[in-house]
């Protein structure tokens, strides 16, 4: 996880430490996906409505609404491509997530142990402080014995 502090806003980038592939956070992506798809639908609806009712814009100083229609279709197409890409990747994530929920705990553990990228323990005081929220010091030391080095306190 890489973070960057830009003008008091923190951005987090998630990535695989093995293949360096980019990962996304579905809870942060979903509102953007819905917004882009809704904007696309709105632009398409308005352009169709205006093309069948050209008199709607006659009082607003528009002589010929064709330019506006093309602009709205272009914006709808642009944001539709981005929203469609988000929908595609979100569907892939949802199908993977459901397949993981259907597996037993033993199957999940077996899959994790057979995965090509295995976790590596690095000595870190931050990890110890974080882990002590959930585990006792003895349990943290047991983790260190199993996956790394033992540190005496």
Structure summarized in a few sentences:
With 153 residues, this protein is mainly α. It has helices at residues 26-52, 66-101, 105-114, 125-131, 137-147, and strands at residues 2-6, 9-15, 22-23.
Task: Describe the fold and architecture.
By secondary structure, the protein is mostly helical. It has a domain at 28-102. Helix content is 59%, strand content 9%. It contains five helices and three strands. The protein has helices at residues 26-52, 66-101, 105-114, 125-131, 137-147; strands at residues 2-6, 9-15, 22-23. A hairpin with a 2-residue loop joins strand 1 (2-6) and strand 2.
List keywords for this structure.
mainly alpha; single chain; three-stranded antiparallel β-sheet; 153 residues; transmembrane helix; 3 strands; 5 helices
Please list the strands of the largest sheet in the order they lie side by side. Answer: 1-2-3
Instruction: Return the average pLDDT rounded to an integer.
Output: 82
Low-confidence stretches: none
Radius of gyration computed on alpha carbons: 25 Å
Annotate the secondary structure layout.
Elements: E1 2-6, E2 9-15, E3 22-23, H1 26-52, H2 66-101, H3 105-114, H4 125-131, H5 137-147
Antiparallel strand pairs: 1-2, 2-3
Keywords: Membrane, Transmembrane, Transmembrane helix
Transmembrane segments: 32-52, 67-88
């Amino acid at each position: 996880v890489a973070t960057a502090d830009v003008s008091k806003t923190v951005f987090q980038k998630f990535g695989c430490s093995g293949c360096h592939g980019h990962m996304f956070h579905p809870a942060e992506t979903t509102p953007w996906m819905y917004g882009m798809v809704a904007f696309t639908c709105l632009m398409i609806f308005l352009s169709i409505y205006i093309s069948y009712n050209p008199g709607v814009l006659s009082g607003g100083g528009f002589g010929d609404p064709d330019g506006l229609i093309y602009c709205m279709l272009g914006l709808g197409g642009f944001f539709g491509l981005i929203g469609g890409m988000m929908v595609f990747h979100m569907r892939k994530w949802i199908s993977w997530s459901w397949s993981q929920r259907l597996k037993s705990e033993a199957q999940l553990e077996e899959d994790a142990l057979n995965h090509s990228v295995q976790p590596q323990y690095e000595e870190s005081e931050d990890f110890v402080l974080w882990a002590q929220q959930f585990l006792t010091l003895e349990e943290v030391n047991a983790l260190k014995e199993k996956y790394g080095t033992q540190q005496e306190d």
